[in-house]
Amino acid sequence: MNKIREILNTVLENRGKPQINSISDSSDLRNDFGLDSLDLAELTVRIEAEYDVDIFQDGIVTTVGEILEKINNKK
Amino acid sequence: MMKNILVTGVSRGLGLEIVKAILADDENFVYGISRLKTKELDELLINNANRFKWLSYDLSNVNDVRNKIFKEFIGVTTPLHGFVNNAAIAYDDIVTNLKYEPLLNMYNVNVFTPMIISKYVIRQFLLHNTKGSIVHISSISVHTGYKGLAMYASSKGALEAFSKNTAREWGEKTIRSNVVVAGFMETEMSAMLSADQKDRIYKRTSLKTPTVTKSVAETITFLLSQKAESITGQNIHVDSGTI
Ligand SMILES: NC(=O)c1ccc[n+]([C@@H]2O[C@H](COP(=O)([O-])OP(=O)(O)OC[C@H]3O[C@@H](n4cnc5c(N)ncnc54)[C@H](OP(=O)(O)O)[C@@H]3O)[C@@H](O)[C@H]2O)c1
């Protein structure tokens, strides 16, 4: 969870968007953090580099919980 | 810092010239792809052993791009700065003889695999926050018709559209995409043309001469560099002034 927050903050920082302090399973990537499609692409790439999982490979993810689920399924 | 550039079709013709032009700047490193290792390519590899790596990959294979090219050959941890989509084949025939299999194969090599490579190239740019530059090689046949080139020209037209839209989509991330539209060059690709056909082609140019591969390669190198930082979404014609 902390690692995901770190990655999210890197993406936000790269677009000059405000940092986030806390995240939960139900946090919505677009609505709560203001990520757009380009940010989501960068998020995908950074998560893939860390966990070797392409979170958008099959279907859309909208929440932090869904990202964690994809990462855990891989393990 | 070293700039890493991926170039396809490096075994002969324009591709060899592109690699030479890029390596002329000793801050550049080339990851080159083709099926065969020709004598000229081998020499270039030996003379630039610490700045030029090569992979044999058949671009008709659309499926192994991520594993073979990005994970094993370049490596995800390597920052990438540029991609030159140069490899191509020409399916040369009149439209009434068109067959699906060779058409599909040409599209795999000229369009589909390069599009998939572009996907991973952009991902690599994003991961490393590089101001990446993509250059596709198109042909003057897209803009001036030639008998027998309808299928080939259509594949290059697809790349021009893909490039323009890539530029628009990724400009915000300082990623650029441009096309160099080459005129007829004296390479293996145009070797099947008769002297008479070539003559007629050259007569349609302002300079009345074949397009020089070195001039095309230098333009590509310029577009890859920061000197071209405000140029994106463009088609740059290097075609002896075809009219
Ligand atoms: N020649 C012209 O008059 C002309 C005019 C306008 C535009 N262009 C464009 O300029 C670019 C370079 O062409 P060229 O004249 O240098 O052609 P070329 O001499 O035929 O070289 C083509 C290159 O592409 C590679 N290639 C072809 N099929 C491949 C495959 N399945 N997998 C991997 N690599 C493959 C070849 O390597 P291997 O065979 O070793 O795989 C070779 O290195 C092309 O995009 C072409 O469309 C050429």
Keywords:
heterodimer, A: 75 residues, mainly alpha, Non-ribosomal Peptide Synthetase Peptidyl Carrier Protein, Chain A, 3 helices, B: 243 residues, Rossmann fold, globular, binds NADP nicotinamide-adenine-dinucleotide phosphate
Describe the structure.
The complex is a heterodimer of chains A (75) and B (243). Chain A has helices at 2-14, 37-51, 64-74. Chain A is an all-alpha fold. Chain A has one domain: ACP-like (Non-ribosomal Peptide Synthetase Peptidyl Carrier Protein, Chain A, Orthogonal Bundle). In chain A, helix 1 crosses helix 2. Chain A is globular, with a radius of gyration of 11 Å. Chain B has 243 residues and is an alpha/beta fold. Chain B has a seven-stranded parallel beta sheet, sandwiched between helices. The N and C termini of chain B lie far apart (42 Å). Classes of the chains: A mainly alpha (75), B alpha/beta (243). The interface between A and B is small, with 9 and 11 residues. The complex binds NADP nicotinamide-adenine-dinucleotide phosphate.
* Cross-sheet strand order for the largest sheet of chain B: 3-2-1-4-5-6-7
Radius of gyration of chain A: 11 Å
Low-confidence stretches of chain B: none
Overall mean confidence score, pLDDT of chain B: 97
Present as ligands are: NADP nicotinamide-adenine-dinucleotide phosphate
CATH fold type of chain B: Rossmann fold
User: Taking all residues together, what is the mean pLDDT of chain A?
Assistant: 92
Kindly provide the name of the CATH class of chain B.
Alpha Beta
Q: H/E element string of chain B?
A: EHEHEHEHEHEHHE
Question: What structural category arises from helix and sheet content of chain A?
Answer: mainly alpha
Instruction: Determine the CATH superfamily of chain A.
Output: ACP-like
Q: Approximately what portion of the residues of chain B adopt beta-strand conformation?
A: 15-25%
Oligomer: heterodimer
Under CATH, the topology of chain A is which? Non-ribosomal Peptide Synthetase Peptidyl Carrier Protein, Chain A
General shape of chain B: globular
**Low-confidence region ranges of chain A:** none
Our count of helices of chain B gives 7
Q: What is the percent of helical residues of chain A?
A: 40-55%
Query: How far apart, in Å, are the first and last alpha carbons of chain B?
Result: 42 Å
